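ingest -> validate -> predict -> emit
validate: passed (alphabet ok, no gaps, 162 aa)
predict: started
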Amino acid sequence: MKDLAMISYLTNKLGPLYQTKLYKLLFYIDFLYYKYHNSSITWCTYYKLPYWPVPLAIKTKVDCVIANSDIEDSEIKKAIWEYKKYLNINKTEDSNKYTIFWTFHEEKLLTQDEISVINYVIEKIGSLWTSRIVSKSHAEKAYTMTTMFQPIFYGLSDSLNI
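emit:
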């Protein structure tokens, strides 16, 4: 539920977000939180993909909601139902892009330390265009030192440039 709370907090502060920007903000928040607290907020595994470090578990749920997939596995179905219940996805003029807005409103699940890190990331990069955040995240050692399609090691958070 921390992932929903964090995404809700971000979209309530910044408005609807493209998936690319959302995943990059989550990357910075989780890795920066790990840098200072030796723990992640979501504990999602982020993978190095060509356009982003991506929290695969969150992306999979969002993609399933977008595709409105009929999932057989009851645990996956339950997790996706939680996302469907609070997810507001709007297709943009470019039919390959979606903006995401969350109506979860359970930010109380976040600690004050977590909110402080989220606010710091919002302050530093929240107003940047998606393309600027892409460039910034691709210059990070955590991204450059990871092999394509492999998990990004949280231990690389010490090198974050934010």
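The longest helix spans residues 19-37.
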